[in-house]
Design brief:
Elements lengths: L1 E6 L4 H11 L4 E7 L8 H4 L23 E6 L5 H11 L3 E4 L9 H8 L13 E2 L2 H10 L2 E3 L3 H15 L9 E6 L14 H4 L4 E2 L7 H13 L6 E6 L6 E7 L7 H11 L6 E3 L17 E8 L4 E8 L3 H15 L14
Parallel strand pairs: 1-2, 1-3, 3-4, 4-6, 5-6, 7-9, 11-12
Antiparallel strand pairs: 7-10, 8-9, 10-13, 12-13
Length: 344
């Protein structure tokens, strides 16, 4: 059994990690931390864990993490996570960071999009972007994984085969994405207060969402050129889930059937990517609680534009489930170990 630590265990992604790892056959969570609830039992804060996970929450002190721990999941807020990294790596732990602190390769980009000076820029180059479907080999040997953001996961997987095979006019891409409220995290804010969210549907951070830089960076690596996208996120009055719709111009002469064949081949060995049949469309309820991403392709023959839709659970494939998927690869386990749950 591999020993696991979770820093920031009481937030949405931290509790999802505990839920998933509770049924994982090859791991044992031995250390969990929370600055707010240190000294309390986890089940006192989250009663769903009664008689399942009754660990005591500790303060986030690197020296308190048991030496036998192999993997540390860092589910701390942006900016705080990077500050722990020098100590964690010096102690020899392998780390999966669920914040945005190591996703961008340039400290200046991080400052621009997150309005913070990067606390540990020397680790940016080393960090492996943890999208297993694209970076499986690098993930297997990494000591620091930058777990992708939820929007970028849904969007990059929707576009990766076309960009990799140069089958899309990159300048044409327009991304329209909708997320449940849990994507904003557990800390209360007025914009995500129930009376402000329910019976309402709105766009936010138009043309300035921080995930734009991450999307452009990774799509640029796939397409081997600088890429800029138009990305508009929306808030949907539901707890969890993301539906992304991408509009683009495919390379001339490519049919929907050829593009679907490419996607089926590209993701043929990926257990969590489901390419839907011609008449099916993804819905968030069909991936809720699971690590699946459902992708549909539709050619608008009238305009010649291709429409790609993808659905994920932002807390699972968009965060904790993908982190466990990365952990499995790092430990040499089958990629889907402990992640075979059907959607809710």
């Amino acid at each position: 059994m591999s020993k696991i630590a979770i820093l920031g265990a009481t937030g949405y992604t931290g509790t999802e990690l505990i839920r998933l790892l509770n049924d994982h056959p090859e791991t044992d969570v031995v250390f969990i931390s929370s600055e707010t609830y240190a000294g309390s039992k986890l089940s006192d804060i989250h009663p769903q864990f009664r008689e399942q996970e009754d660990l005591i929450l500790s303060r986030m002190q690197v020296d308190e993490i048991p030496p036998a721990v192999e993997i540390v999941f860092c589910a701390l807020p942006h900016g705080q996570s990077a500050g722990t990294m020098p100590g964690l790596l010096k102690k020899g732990y392998r780390v999966i960071d669920l914040s945005a602190d190591f996703r961008l390769k340039e400290a200046e980009l991080y400052r621009q999009w997150y309005e913070l000076e990067h606390p540990a820029p020397s680790f940016l180059e080393e960090a492996v972007y943890g999208l297993p479907e694209l970076n499986r080999r690098a993930v297997s040997t990494a000591r620091l994984i930058a777990n992708p953001g939820c929007y970028p996961t849904s969007i990059i997987l929707a576009l990766a085969p076309l960009l990799k095979e140069s089958m899309v006019k990159a300048a044409s891409m327009i991304i329209d994405a909708k997320s449940g409220v849990s994507g904003a995290g557990r800390t209360p804010r007025q914009a995500f207060h129930f009376p402000d969210c329910t019976e309402n549907f709105k766009a936010y951070r138009v043309a300035c969402h921080q995930h734009t830089a991450e999307i452009e960076q990774e799509l640029g690596l796939l397409g081997e050129s600088e890429i800029k996208v138009t990305f508009t996120p929306h808030l949907v009055p539901m707890a969890r889930g993301i539906l992304s719709t991408v509009y683009l111009e495919p390379a001339s002469g490519k049919t929907e059937e050829e593009i679907r064949a490419l996607y089926n081949y590209f993701y043929g060995e990926c257990p969590f990517v489901r390419i839907l049949e011609e008449d099916a469309l993804p819905e968030t309820r069909f991936v809720r609680g699971s690590n699946f991403v459902d992708i549909a392709l539709k050619m608008d023959r009238r305009t010649g534009r291709l429409i790609i839709l993808s659905a994920i659970d932002n807390l699972v494939k968009g965060a904790a489930g993908q982190a466990v998927q990365n952990m499995n690869i790092m430990l040499g386990l089958p990629e889907d170990t402990g992640l075979r749950q059907l959607p809710f």
